[in-house]
Amino acid sequence: MASLKDLRNRIASVKGTQKITKAMQMVAAAKLRRAQMAAESARPYAEKMSQVLGNLAANLVGGVQGPRLLSGTGAEKTHLLIVCTADRGLCGGFNSSIVRLAREHIRRLTAEGKTVKIVTVGKKGYDLLRRQYRDQIIENRDLRGNKPVDYEFAAEIADSIISRFDAGEFDVATLFYSRFRSVIAQVPTAQKLIPAELPQAGATAPDAALQFEPNEETILDTLLPRNLTVQVFRALLENAASEQGARTGAMDSATRNAGEMIKKQTQIYNRTRQAMITKELIEIISGAEAL
């Protein structure tokens, strides 16, 4: 049985941990509001750009495949996976759920005889993947110098992806991130970037009198790289909101668990102290009777 001093030290230690987790929960909740607003603000622009590109692609003259970012290389032999996570932990299953989804894709592609290359954005994704796929990781970018995430950082990642595609290093690129839904719900998502997956043109599009200058293919050449940057930027913003949401929930659970542990240890301390007092009283009474 632990001594009273040990129990007091244990209770004090858990109380200190509880103060830390409570503070981290409050900080994460404050950051969440800003990150959520940024993610929700980016969604309409990214979705509208995809819709515009879908309309442009639908108006291409028959037989014209369009830019390579839209049509791809015609092969699916080499796949590039861009795995976006956080630089820090203590956020529940946020990082592991994204990496788990990426691992499932890697195993499936490998079983099909495909070549897989990996780009990691965020230290945690790199740490979790390098144990199994160190030789397949061709680039790693951390987020330590990019908080909050800005458009320029997303543009750097997108430019690197396009440069590798133009150099013939891969045929298909897929982006992995966590879509923010609420504080208790973040959805791991896989989005194909190259060839671009665009929504189908609306039902009223063919009847609309639209003219594109100079032509659809030229406009797509200009907008597709920008759309790739926008989609990467949106994914990073979704990740930032999901990370803070997951951390808020994780720290709330840790704070409540610490409270339950303090209550349990306090009960043990009181019972142990009462037992020691009772034992001393019995010894005193027994000694007095012996006299």
Please characterize this protein's 3D structure.
The chain is an alpha/beta fold and about 290 residues long. Helices cover about 60% and strands about 15% of the residues. The protein contains 6 helices and 5 strands. Strands 3-2-1-4-5 form a 5-stranded mixed beta sheet, sandwiched between helices. Helix 1 (about 5-60) runs antiparallel to helix 6, helix 3 (about 95-110) packs parallel to helix 4 (about 125-135) and helix 5 crosses helix 6 (about 215-290). The longest helix has about 80 residues, at about 215-290. Residues about 205 have low confidence and may be disordered.
What does the average pLDDT come to?
87
Please report the number of helical segments. Answer: 6
Order of strands in the sheet with the most strands?
Answer: 3-2-1-4-5
Class from secondary-structure proportions: alpha/beta
Low-confidence stretches: 203-207
Anisotropy-based shape: elongated
Q: What summary fits the major beta sheet?
A: 5 strands, mixed
N- and C-termini, Cα separation: 32 Å
From N to C, what is the helix and strand string?
HHEHEHEHEEH
Function: Produces ATP from ADP in the presence of a proton gradient across the membrane. The gamma chain is believed to be important in regulating ATPase activity and the flow of protons through the CF(0) complex.
Family: Belongs to the ATPase gamma chain family.
Subunit structure: F-type ATPases have 2 components, CF(1) - the catalytic core - and CF(0) - the membrane proton channel. CF(1) has five subunits: alpha(3), beta(3), gamma(1), delta(1), epsilon(1). CF(0) has three main subunits: a, b and c.
Keywords: ATP synthesis, Cell membrane, CF(1), Hydrogen ion transport, Ion transport, Membrane, Transport
